[in-house]
Design brief:
Elements lengths: L5 H13 L2 H8 L3 H15 L4 E4 L2 E4 L1 H26 L4 E8 H4 L3 H11 L3 E8 L1 H9 L5 E5 L7 E8 L1 E5 L10 E6 L4 H13 L3 E7 L2 H10 L4 E3 L8 E3 L11 E8 L5 H18 L2 E4 L1
Parallel strand pairs: 3-4, 3-5, 8-9
Antiparallel strand pairs: 1-2, 5-12, 6-12, 6-13, 7-10, 7-11
Length: 291
Protein backbone atom coordinates (compact mmCIF):
# COMPACT_ATOMS: atom_id res chain seq x y z
CA UNK A 1 0.00 0.00 0.00
CA UNK A 2 1.44 3.36 -1.05
CA UNK A 3 1.11 6.15 1.56
CA UNK A 4 -0.67 9.26 0.28
CA UNK A 5 0.71 12.70 1.09
CA UNK A 6 -2.06 14.77 2.77
CA UNK A 7 -1.02 17.72 0.60
CA UNK A 8 -2.02 15.72 -2.48
CA UNK A 9 -5.39 14.99 -0.91
CA UNK A 10 -5.83 18.65 0.04
CA UNK A 11 -5.21 19.73 -3.56
CA UNK A 12 -7.47 16.99 -4.89
CA UNK A 13 -10.26 18.04 -2.54
CA UNK A 14 -9.81 21.68 -3.59
CA UNK A 15 -10.52 20.55 -7.16
CA UNK A 16 -13.48 18.40 -6.08
CA UNK A 17 -15.06 21.31 -4.21
CA UNK A 18 -14.03 24.09 -6.60
CA UNK A 19 -14.84 22.31 -9.84
CA UNK A 20 -11.78 23.36 -11.80
CA UNK A 21 -8.00 23.12 -11.70
CA UNK A 22 -7.73 26.91 -11.83
CA UNK A 23 -9.87 27.36 -8.70
CA UNK A 24 -8.01 24.53 -6.98
CA UNK A 25 -4.70 26.26 -7.77
CA UNK A 26 -5.98 29.48 -6.18
CA UNK A 27 -7.27 27.65 -3.11
CA UNK A 28 -3.96 25.88 -2.39
CA UNK A 29 -1.79 28.78 -3.54
CA UNK A 30 -0.05 26.84 -6.31
CA UNK A 31 0.30 27.28 -10.06
CA UNK A 32 -2.13 25.39 -12.35
CA UNK A 33 0.77 23.37 -13.73
CA UNK A 34 1.82 22.36 -10.20
CA UNK A 35 -1.76 21.29 -9.43
CA UNK A 36 -1.87 19.24 -12.64
CA UNK A 37 1.40 17.55 -11.64
CA UNK A 38 0.00 16.76 -8.20
CA UNK A 39 -3.13 15.21 -9.73
CA UNK A 40 -0.98 13.06 -12.03
CA UNK A 41 1.11 11.94 -9.09
CA UNK A 42 -2.01 11.07 -7.10
CA UNK A 43 -3.44 9.07 -10.00
CA UNK A 44 -0.16 7.15 -10.22
CA UNK A 45 -0.32 6.34 -6.49
CA UNK A 46 -3.96 5.23 -6.67
CA UNK A 47 -3.51 3.37 -9.94
CA UNK A 48 -6.80 4.71 -11.32
CA UNK A 49 -7.98 7.74 -13.25
CA UNK A 50 -9.45 10.32 -10.92
CA UNK A 51 -10.30 13.05 -13.45
CA UNK A 52 -12.00 12.73 -16.83
CA UNK A 53 -12.31 15.31 -19.66
CA UNK A 54 -15.65 17.13 -19.87
CA UNK A 55 -15.83 19.84 -22.52
CA UNK A 56 -13.01 22.26 -21.81
CA UNK A 57 -12.71 21.15 -18.21
CA UNK A 58 -12.51 18.01 -16.14
CA UNK A 59 -14.81 16.16 -13.77
CA UNK A 60 -14.33 13.46 -11.17
CA UNK A 61 -14.52 9.85 -12.28
CA UNK A 62 -16.45 7.38 -10.07
CA UNK A 63 -13.15 6.48 -8.42
CA UNK A 64 -12.48 10.19 -7.94
CA UNK A 65 -15.87 10.65 -6.26
CA UNK A 66 -15.09 7.80 -3.88
CA UNK A 67 -11.63 9.20 -3.11
CA UNK A 68 -13.13 12.64 -2.36
CA UNK A 69 -15.24 11.12 0.43
CA UNK A 70 -12.19 9.35 1.88
CA UNK A 71 -10.07 12.50 1.51
CA UNK A 72 -12.50 14.54 3.59
CA UNK A 73 -12.39 12.01 6.41
CA UNK A 74 -8.59 11.69 6.25
CA UNK A 75 -8.02 15.43 6.30
CA UNK A 76 -10.57 15.89 9.10
CA UNK A 77 -8.73 13.27 11.19
CA UNK A 78 -5.38 14.86 10.30
CA UNK A 79 -6.62 18.30 11.36
CA UNK A 80 -8.23 17.02 14.56
CA UNK A 81 -5.01 15.25 15.56
CA UNK A 82 -2.97 18.38 14.85
CA UNK A 83 -5.33 20.57 16.87
CA UNK A 84 -5.48 18.10 19.73
CA UNK A 85 -1.72 17.78 20.07
CA UNK A 86 -1.31 21.55 20.00
CA UNK A 87 -4.24 22.30 22.26
CA UNK A 88 -4.41 19.60 24.93
CA UNK A 89 -2.27 21.61 27.36
CA UNK A 90 -3.05 25.06 26.04
CA UNK A 91 -4.96 27.44 28.26
CA UNK A 92 -5.89 31.09 28.14
CA UNK A 93 -8.66 33.07 26.52
CA UNK A 94 -9.87 33.67 22.96
CA UNK A 95 -12.23 36.47 21.98
CA UNK A 96 -14.32 35.70 18.90
CA UNK A 97 -16.72 38.15 17.30
CA UNK A 98 -19.30 36.87 14.81
CA UNK A 99 -22.50 38.04 13.19
CA UNK A 100 -25.72 36.17 13.93
CA UNK A 101 -25.65 34.73 10.38
CA UNK A 102 -22.86 32.33 11.35
CA UNK A 103 -23.80 31.92 15.01
CA UNK A 104 -27.11 30.35 13.92
CA UNK A 105 -25.60 28.02 11.32
CA UNK A 106 -22.12 26.47 11.19
CA UNK A 107 -20.34 28.13 14.13
CA UNK A 108 -21.70 25.97 17.01
CA UNK A 109 -20.45 22.73 15.45
CA UNK A 110 -17.00 24.16 14.77
CA UNK A 111 -16.71 25.56 18.32
CA UNK A 112 -17.68 22.16 19.72
CA UNK A 113 -14.96 20.56 17.62
CA UNK A 114 -12.42 23.12 18.82
CA UNK A 115 -13.45 22.62 22.46
CA UNK A 116 -12.69 18.89 22.21
CA UNK A 117 -9.11 19.60 21.16
CA UNK A 118 -8.61 22.68 23.38
CA UNK A 119 -10.55 21.81 26.56
CA UNK A 120 -8.84 24.40 28.77
CA UNK A 121 -9.45 27.43 26.57
CA UNK A 122 -11.95 30.04 27.71
CA UNK A 123 -13.94 31.44 24.81
CA UNK A 124 -15.34 34.97 24.98
CA UNK A 125 -18.01 34.95 22.27
CA UNK A 126 -19.48 38.21 21.06
CA UNK A 127 -22.43 38.03 18.66
CA UNK A 128 -23.55 41.28 17.11
CA UNK A 129 -23.72 43.63 14.15
CA UNK A 130 -20.79 43.87 11.72
CA UNK A 131 -20.16 47.58 12.33
CA UNK A 132 -19.85 47.24 16.11
CA UNK A 133 -17.82 44.03 15.89
CA UNK A 134 -15.39 45.56 13.41
CA UNK A 135 -14.92 48.57 15.68
CA UNK A 136 -14.18 46.24 18.61
CA UNK A 137 -11.69 44.29 16.49
CA UNK A 138 -9.93 47.51 15.48
CA UNK A 139 -9.72 48.45 19.18
CA UNK A 140 -7.99 45.12 20.00
CA UNK A 141 -11.02 43.82 21.93
CA UNK A 142 -11.52 40.79 19.63
CA UNK A 143 -8.92 38.25 18.45
CA UNK A 144 -10.96 36.74 15.60
CA UNK A 145 -13.62 38.51 13.58
CA UNK A 146 -16.22 36.88 11.33
CA UNK A 147 -18.42 39.61 9.91
CA UNK A 148 -19.58 41.41 6.80
CA UNK A 149 -16.56 42.73 4.95
CA UNK A 150 -15.98 46.47 5.22
CA UNK A 151 -12.86 46.68 3.01
CA UNK A 152 -9.84 44.59 2.03
CA UNK A 153 -7.46 44.08 4.98
CA UNK A 154 -4.01 42.56 5.41
CA UNK A 155 -5.17 40.37 8.31
CA UNK A 156 -7.89 38.58 6.32
CA UNK A 157 -7.59 34.78 6.34
CA UNK A 158 -10.68 34.14 4.27
CA UNK A 159 -13.30 35.95 2.24
CA UNK A 160 -16.68 34.34 1.63
CA UNK A 161 -19.02 35.63 -1.06
CA UNK A 162 -22.70 34.71 -0.65
CA UNK A 163 -25.54 35.81 -2.89
CA UNK A 164 -28.08 38.21 -1.37
CA UNK A 165 -31.66 37.00 -1.76
CA UNK A 166 -35.14 38.48 -1.43
CA UNK A 167 -36.89 36.53 1.33
CA UNK A 168 -40.41 36.43 2.74
CA UNK A 169 -42.80 34.30 4.80
CA UNK A 170 -43.60 30.90 3.30
CA UNK A 171 -47.27 31.98 3.59
CA UNK A 172 -46.59 35.03 1.44
CA UNK A 173 -47.26 38.65 2.29
CA UNK A 174 -50.15 39.33 4.64
CA UNK A 175 -51.41 42.01 2.24
CA UNK A 176 -50.41 42.60 -1.38
CA UNK A 177 -49.96 46.28 -2.21
CA UNK A 178 -48.51 48.44 -4.92
CA UNK A 179 -45.55 49.55 -2.79
CA UNK A 180 -43.18 46.76 -1.77
CA UNK A 181 -43.12 46.50 2.06
CA UNK A 182 -39.54 46.12 3.21
CA UNK A 183 -38.16 44.88 6.55
CA UNK A 184 -34.60 46.02 7.34
CA UNK A 185 -32.12 46.30 10.16
CA UNK A 186 -31.38 49.70 11.62
CA UNK A 187 -28.53 51.49 9.84
CA UNK A 188 -25.69 51.02 9.24
CA UNK A 189 -26.40 47.73 7.44
CA UNK A 190 -24.98 46.47 4.15
CA UNK A 191 -28.10 44.44 3.36
CA UNK A 192 -30.36 47.43 3.97
CA UNK A 193 -28.19 49.67 1.77
CA UNK A 194 -28.10 47.09 -1.04
CA UNK A 195 -31.88 46.53 -1.02
CA UNK A 196 -32.72 50.23 -1.09
CA UNK A 197 -30.10 50.93 -3.76
CA UNK A 198 -31.38 48.33 -6.25
CA UNK A 199 -35.01 49.28 -5.66
CA UNK A 200 -34.30 52.97 -6.25
CA UNK A 201 -32.11 52.23 -9.27
CA UNK A 202 -34.79 50.11 -10.92
CA UNK A 203 -37.62 52.49 -10.05
CA UNK A 204 -39.48 49.96 -7.89
CA UNK A 205 -41.74 51.67 -5.37
CA UNK A 206 -41.25 50.53 -1.79
CA UNK A 207 -41.78 51.56 1.80
CA UNK A 208 -39.99 50.64 5.02
CA UNK A 209 -42.60 48.49 6.75
CA UNK A 210 -40.49 47.23 9.66
CA UNK A 211 -37.11 47.97 11.25
CA UNK A 212 -35.18 46.19 13.99
CA UNK A 213 -31.75 46.40 15.63
CA UNK A 214 -31.48 42.59 15.66
CA UNK A 215 -31.90 39.61 13.33
CA UNK A 216 -34.45 38.06 15.68
CA UNK A 217 -36.67 41.13 15.28
CA UNK A 218 -36.14 41.06 11.52
CA UNK A 219 -37.09 37.38 11.40
CA UNK A 220 -40.29 38.06 13.36
CA UNK A 221 -41.27 40.81 10.92
CA UNK A 222 -40.70 38.56 7.90
CA UNK A 223 -42.45 35.55 9.46
CA UNK A 224 -45.52 37.69 10.13
CA UNK A 225 -45.81 38.40 6.42
CA UNK A 226 -45.78 42.17 6.80
CA UNK A 227 -42.67 42.61 4.64
CA UNK A 228 -39.91 41.05 2.55
CA UNK A 229 -36.25 41.37 3.45
CA UNK A 230 -32.78 40.84 2.04
CA UNK A 231 -30.37 38.28 3.50
CA UNK A 232 -28.46 35.18 2.30
CA UNK A 233 -29.41 31.49 2.29
CA UNK A 234 -28.42 31.31 5.96
CA UNK A 235 -31.69 33.10 6.80
CA UNK A 236 -33.86 30.50 5.03
CA UNK A 237 -35.92 27.90 6.84
CA UNK A 238 -38.46 27.75 9.67
CA UNK A 239 -41.12 29.64 7.77
CA UNK A 240 -38.91 31.81 5.56
CA UNK A 241 -38.36 31.17 1.85
CA UNK A 242 -37.28 32.96 -1.31
CA UNK A 243 -39.68 35.69 -2.39
CA UNK A 244 -41.98 34.50 -5.20
CA UNK A 245 -41.15 35.37 -8.81
CA UNK A 246 -44.43 37.19 -9.34
CA UNK A 247 -43.20 40.03 -7.11
CA UNK A 248 -40.71 40.89 -9.87
CA UNK A 249 -37.92 41.89 -7.54
CA UNK A 250 -34.61 43.07 -9.05
CA UNK A 251 -31.34 41.15 -8.81
CA UNK A 252 -29.15 41.78 -5.77
CA UNK A 253 -25.35 41.89 -5.45
CA UNK A 254 -23.38 39.30 -3.44
CA UNK A 255 -22.57 39.86 0.21
CA UNK A 256 -18.97 39.50 1.32
CA UNK A 257 -17.95 38.20 4.74
CA UNK A 258 -14.37 38.07 5.99
CA UNK A 259 -12.52 36.10 8.63
CA UNK A 260 -9.83 38.24 10.25
CA UNK A 261 -7.16 37.38 12.81
CA UNK A 262 -5.19 39.89 14.85
CA UNK A 263 -1.44 39.81 14.33
CA UNK A 264 -1.02 39.84 18.12
CA UNK A 265 -3.25 36.76 18.57
CA UNK A 266 -1.71 33.89 20.55
CA UNK A 267 -1.44 30.30 19.32
CA UNK A 268 -4.86 29.02 20.51
CA UNK A 269 -6.58 31.85 18.63
CA UNK A 270 -4.47 31.05 15.58
CA UNK A 271 -5.59 27.41 15.83
CA UNK A 272 -9.28 28.36 15.99
CA UNK A 273 -8.89 30.81 13.10
CA UNK A 274 -7.21 28.07 11.02
CA UNK A 275 -10.08 25.68 11.75
CA UNK A 276 -12.65 28.30 10.70
CA UNK A 277 -10.69 29.19 7.56
CA UNK A 278 -10.55 25.52 6.54
CA UNK A 279 -14.15 24.59 7.33
CA UNK A 280 -16.27 27.65 6.49
CA UNK A 281 -15.74 27.33 2.71
CA UNK A 282 -17.14 23.79 2.88
CA UNK A 283 -20.36 25.27 4.22
CA UNK A 284 -21.12 27.21 1.04
CA UNK A 285 -18.34 26.22 -1.43
CA UNK A 286 -17.82 29.90 -2.21
CA UNK A 287 -14.44 30.94 -0.85
CA UNK A 288 -12.93 33.59 -3.10
CA UNK A 289 -9.69 34.18 -1.24
CA UNK A 290 -7.41 32.11 0.92
CA UNK A 291 -4.14 33.31 2.43
Amino acid sequence: MNPIDPELLRTFLAFAEGGSLARAATAVNRSPSAVTAQMQRLEALIGERLLAPAGRGRVLTPVGEELAAHARRILDAHRDAWLSLRGARADGRISLGSTQDFADTMLPGLLRRFARSHPRIRLDLRIGRSKELTAAFDQNQIDILLAMRQAAADDELLVLREQMLWLCSDRGLAAEEEELPLAVLDPPCGFRAAAISVLERTGRRFRIAATSPSLSGLRAAVLSGIAVTTRTERFLGTGIERAPVHLGLPSLPPAEFSLRLHARAEKPATDLAALLANELPRDRRNSVANT
